[in-house]
Amino acid sequence: MTGQNDRAEWLTLRQALDAYRLSERTMRRRLTSGEIEGYKATGPKGEEWRVRPPGVAPEPPQGVSDNPGAHERVTGQHEDMAPPLALIENAYRRLLDQNQGLIGELGRVQEARIEDARSAADRIARLEERLEAAQAEVERLRAADAPSDIRPRFRWFWQR
What interhelical angle do 13-20 and 24-33 show, nearest 10? Predict the structure, then answer.
């Protein structure tokens, strides 16, 4: 490999599974923890892992001696911090995208509930108008049907 920026030779996740002889779950866990160097690239189905082939040593970071163990002794790590930082940035971007999606979804749900509440209030108002009209009709019918004096209709009852 000519350099860290030349990532054309990096493996896809499927190729890396065969090369490292690991399960997909173990490979993803090691990529996430930084044990195996990899990065996420945008592919036709979204973000996809690209993995450094086994046996290819990572390039030493800028300003670090060419002594193979110098970086490990200074930082306690065998690789530079770029891949874990890239993982953090990818995770941060994913969380931001998810957050934006959730905010949009919440807004749509709130708008739908507000519209439901408005339509329910409109229906309640129409039903109250119909109830008032029905009560007025009942009162009108009672007034039209009721005799002025109820005693003459039941005179036979009092005449006994």
Answer: 100
